[in-house]
Amino acid sequence: MTDARPPAAVLPGSLDVLILQALRLESRHGLGIARRVEQMTQGAFAVKPGSLFPALYRLERGGLVTSRPGESETRRHARFYTLTAAGRRRLRDDTATWRRLVGALAHALDPSS
Amino acid sequence: MIASRRFVRWLQGLVGELGERLRGRPALGESMAADIDAYLDLLTDEKIAEGLPPAEARRAALVDLGSRSAVRESVRDLQATAVFQALAQDLRYAVRVAARTPGPSAAVVLAMALGIGATAATFSAVDAVLVRPLPYADADRLVVLLHHGTDPVSPANFLDWQRSATSFEAMGAAEYWSPNLRGDGPPEKILALHMTPEALAMLGVPPEIGRLPATGPDGAREIVIADGLWRRRFAADPGVVGRAVQLDADPLVIVGVMPATFHFAPFWATKAEIWGGFDLGPRAASRGGQSLRIFAKLKPGVTLARARAEMTGITATLEAQYPGTNRDLSVTPLKDKVVGDVRATLLVLFGAVACVLLIACANVAHLLLARASTREREFAVRCAIGASRTRVVRQLLTESITLSLAGGAAGVLLAFGGVHVFTALGATSVPRLQTMTLDGRVLIFATALAVLTGLLFGIAPARALARISVSNGLRREDRGSTSARTSRGARRLLIASQVALALVLLVGAGLLLRSFVALRAVDPGFSPDRLASFVVSVSGSAESAPGRRGAFYDELVARVRSMPGVASVAAINHMPLVGDLWSFPYFVEGRPAPRPGEAPTATFRVVSAGYFETMGIGLVSGRTLASTDRDGSPPVIIVNDTLARGAWPGESALGKRLRVPAGPDPRDQVWRTVVGVSRNTVRGDLHDTPEPELFIPLEQNQAYRAEGDIHFEAMTIVVRTTAEPALLVPSIRAVVRGLAPDVPISDVFDMRQVVDQAAAGARFTLVLLGTFAGVALVLAALGIAGVISHDVASRRREIGIRLALGAAPVRVAAQVAGEGLTAALVGLGVGLAAAAALRGAVTSLLFVVTPFDGPTLATVTFALILVAGTACGLPAYRASRISPAEELK
Q1: Domain extents for chain A?
Q2: Mind telling me how many Å the CA of B38 is from chain A's nearest CA?
Q3: In the beta sheet, which residues pair with residue B61?
Q4: Is the Cβ–Cβ distance between B197 and B219 less than 8 Å?
Q5: How would DSSP label each residue in B89-138?
Q6: Residue B19 has pLDDT above 70, yes or no
Q7: What pLDDT is attached to residue B469?
Q8: Burial class (CB in 10 A: 0-12, 13-18, 19+), B561
Q9: Cα separation of B460 and B367, whole Å?
Q10: What is the DSSP letter of B464?
Q11: B38 touches chain A (CB under 8 A)
Q12: For range B214-222, the mean pLDDT
């Protein structure tokens, strides 16, 4: 990623799936999720706390993630979020949906078409 | 069956969801807030790791995070939205739906308002009178000890009991007292109680200022006064404590002022304003003068039964020792003594109001059911485009709860008015009713009632809709299908239950009306119109000197008689209905002397010549008192009819002789010749059975005329006027003041009002139960008409077809009305059975009338048939006028 432009806000509707993806391999705390999303999108998307926490709240309410208290590498108390089975299923479904969507979008915007 | 099981699952889901919302979300939101703080810490750590100094790192982290509260707000918004979004949507929709059908909605609100308003008002009355404890410390342990549950006790007995009983923490005595308060203005007769120190102390109410009278002989010179008296006579001066005031002839020291909320005793002498210390002194050995009311507090853990058993033993021993002095002692909880008489009344009213509420609920259930069925299509559409059935049911419940809450709110307003009605009607006849208010508990009660009725009666329509099938509901030509109609069973149940409930209430109201009429028809034995009475008390005045009293009464009677507007005047010691009742044993000449305690007793009256004429009391035989019946002339007596018949059955009482050996005057010992037999008059209450009474000439009674103690220092003057008695009262006061400025006038009564007032308790019950019955009747009539009308409305097409095919309109009408009438008749049967089963509840409220009174039952049944007939007939008539052409277009 060599684009010098500042990171954009997450594409509308994509934040949930990005959070779920960030938690696919391991539990993370809030900042860890934000950093992982930045890393995964190679800095293109920045997750602001003002959208991260409501999204986490929604996901937890919906039973897609669970959280428990834990300790960070810097020995801070923080909540760690983990994907639930329902969350994995949702991630699988949404990944397929997004792939189709992005493919269609790319095809539509392809200057050669 | 399947539908109902599915419905139960939905409801479970709904309840679960609500519960989760109530419990889960706020907790999650809180942990989220902590997590936002953790995020800030982690961000700071990150900046430190990047090489920034800690303070700088913190600042940078804060900048990155943005406003912490804004982040928190965004979560909280989400929470609130999630919880309230659906509710707000449901509510908005509920209000819109209600506004779309203003008639039925208003009917629901009105029915609920009447039901809940009446119930809340009655609940507060029951709460104030029956539920709340009396305002004394450990009030549930206070008991009253009286002979036969009503009669006072002699000093020697009290002291014996106090010494020997072990069940009580304390036992004390109170005695009626009505001293004249002098100084600081005109003399005033005050109601008061003499109380032994234990009696005042056991109430556990500390004075507002000062202390209670001391124990021991000093206490007998000390008094505490009521807050009201303190403000009225002493300008609320705190310096009054320690001051001596003149009560009758005695200077007594005010040692304390009781709080405004303090009243004692709660069942008798309720308007007492002075509580004085008490020294039984020389009377301590007396077993004759029964004037004490005994109060006691049970030891903690001692049961009423044990105390009763102990007192039975003690009185049996004393009775053996002093025959005739310790009979039939009752130990009654103080609260029972106070409210025992009105408990049945209030419980009947509460039952009645519950019936009104049930009828209102039946109405509401039907209105909601009817509305739900006309909205079948709407819900079918919503289900078809993806609304979950849970959501639809929730919507319906929100609607019904919204309506019933609106009804509840209107009901609370009604209840506020109801409280005034209750207190105005029952002011004089129901103890403790004045303390009745609509407090928080009543409001909670009303709200809970509203929500509960909303839920309960919203469930029926929701259930009905649970059965709808989307495809059927959507079919346009489905107008007349049976699924859109309330079921036949539900219709019958609604009609029959309303009729049954209304019948029970109407029977109750009818019986009370008949009792009330009977009570009003009671002949008091005297003519109460344009008859005034007032008490003059010479106690402590110059007129009380031995020898002056008789002359004072004579002069007073003469002066009042000469006033314009006065027809005649007389004097009596205790006026019927409003005065005290003293009973003394009497002996009949020529009969063996009765054993102690077994002589018949008679109400003891001392009257001046002209008493019977002034009162308008007729004679059965003989003559009335004449001015020739003087001191020194042959001793005479007049007895009432009951005494004459009891003492000399089958023969004339005239010329017979009797004596009153325990009477206050030594001369009562002499044999008195009966010169007249008067008709019976009422004594204390209109429904009392007549008791023996005897009348001794005032001229021949030295206790009243000359030397009797404080108990004989008051006289009631009765005045027959030619105009409204109230107009004469000021001039009568002026006459008394002119004759003796230090003699106070008290207890001024217009006897017409007193007689009317004596029926006040009956009027209280009658007006309230009558109102409830009227409301029930109107609600039931509207309810029945509503059920039939709705049925007709949902069958217009079918009826149209039948008329088109040649059915006679009369037969259509008969069929429509017949269904309702059959259900109403079933309701009548059930109601009559219920009225028969409940007759025990009202028996104690009735007078003369029996609880299964034929005319009442017949009238009520006939009236209900008429009402149900009209309620069924009108919609049936309209059904027969349906135009087939219109319906089949």
Answers
A1: 8-109
A2: 5
A3: none
A4: yes
A5: HHHHHHHHHHHHSHHHHHHHHHHHHHHHHHHHHHHHHHIIIIISPPSSTT
A6: no
A7: 58
A8: middle
A9: 11
A10: H
A11: yes
A12: 85
